[in-house]
Amino acid sequence: NWTMDSFIDKEIERIRAIVGETGSVVGAVSGGVDSTVAAVLMKRAIGDRFHAVLVDNGVMRLNECEQVKETLGSQLGINLRVVDASDIFLGKLKGVTDPEKKRKIIGNTFIEVFETESHKIDEECKNSGAGKIEFLLQGTLYPDVIESISFKGPSATIKSHHNVGGLLEDMRLNLIEPLRELFKDEVRALGTLLGISDELVWRHPFPGPGIAIRILGEVTPDQVRIARHADYIYIEEIKKAGLYRKISQAFAALLPVRSVGVMGDMRTYEQVIALRAVETTDFMTADWFEFPASVLKRISSRIINEVEGVNRIVYDVSSKPPSTIEWE
Ligand code: XMP
After folding, report:
1. Does ipTM surpass 0.90 in this model?
2. In a designed cystine with 276, which of 29, 126, 265, 316 is the match (CB 3.0 to 4.6 A)?
């Protein structure tokens, strides 16, 4: 891919020219394709003067934090630090059931934690004789740019966790957005050229508030355990069935209702998992995915057998609109 090859070289030169010989750069990564591609470009341009931060908010998927450490840190060689803030996030989410409140708490806490860490990195840089932090990296894509200019609908809140204006002002940072002229398919092509694995390049999108908005009602450590485990099995079976790339986004949602079941000769009274899978090109409209019945059957029996606290599985057959993709 000639165009993308020349994009890489040009972009690396452009970043070097902007950052200069001494400055340092900080950026949050999530394990998703956008922030990873941006981070790899930055690493190629300025090496360890780029400091990547992964905030563990306690509502990432099963093993996800370890996986990001392995992929970005060990395999891609990015100077990465992981901040375990799960107790802070889960503490603030305690007793909260309103979806918008959950989003706000997670968004604001993310900024606080990231800001504190950025100040720490800045001090360390200065003390070690490296240049201070002067820039903030963001993996903003072209559609995000357009959306934030022209659209003040629900998406304005969707992107609210990206609002790091205070951080920029407080530390006098300038923004670097190497992907701001690219579409998603171009970022994926770029990712492949940069040596990022297919698994990461083709990963389904995952929302900033994580599984907290897929646990309806209160987010407790035990609800997190159930939602994580069910989602893990669901995605594993989708991959085994060779359907992952056909589906645009899939996840398990944990419903805060109990229903009666029977296990052996015992009556059970446990929670419900709702499975969601959609096909879409732009995520503004979406159709529910038509699974082969045999795949749903396997997923259902595995989740009920393996995840303690679940005795019923339902499949979400709603399109967007009028439903949204997420449940909260
Ligand atoms: P909805 O549920 O609005 O979702 O149909 C459309 C797409 O946006 C994702 N989404 C989010 N992404 N932070 C994000 O980064 C959020 O708060 C958020 N809410 C929804 C959703 O997963 C889907 O891909």
Report:
1. yes
2. 316
207 lines ligand 1 (CB under 6 A): yes
φ/ψ region of 242 (left if φ > 0, alpha if ψ in -120 to 50, else beta) reads left
Is residue 168 predicted with pLDDT exceeding 90?
A: no
287, 279 in Cβ contact below 8 A? Answer: yes
Report CA-CA distances (Å) from 305 to 115, 225, 229, 232, 291.
Answer: 43, 15, 12, 14, 21
> Does residue 36 have a known ligand-binding role?
yes
Residue 159 pLDDT level (bands cut at 50, 70, 90): very low
In the DSSP assignment, the letter for residue 215 is B
Cβ atoms of residues 267 and 260 within 8 Å: yes
d(CA 274, ligand 1 centre) in Å: 17
What are the start-end ranges of the H helices in the chain?
2-19, 33-46, 64-68, 86-93, 99-127, 142-150, 154-158, 165-170, 184-193, 198-201, 221-240, 293-306
Query: Which pLDDT band holds residue 64 (cuts at 50, 70, 90)?
Result: very high
User: Is the CB of 214 inside a 6 Å radius of any atom of ligand 1?
Assistant: no
- Token pair belonging to 39: 């981070």
Residue 221 CA to ligand 1 centre (angstroms): 23
For the stretch 199-208, pLDDT in tens is: 999 999 999 9
Mean pLDDT for the chain? 94
Full-model pTM: 0.94
Instruction: Give the DSSP H or E segment for 245.
Output: none
Give 314 Cα–ligand 1 centroid separation in angstroms.
21
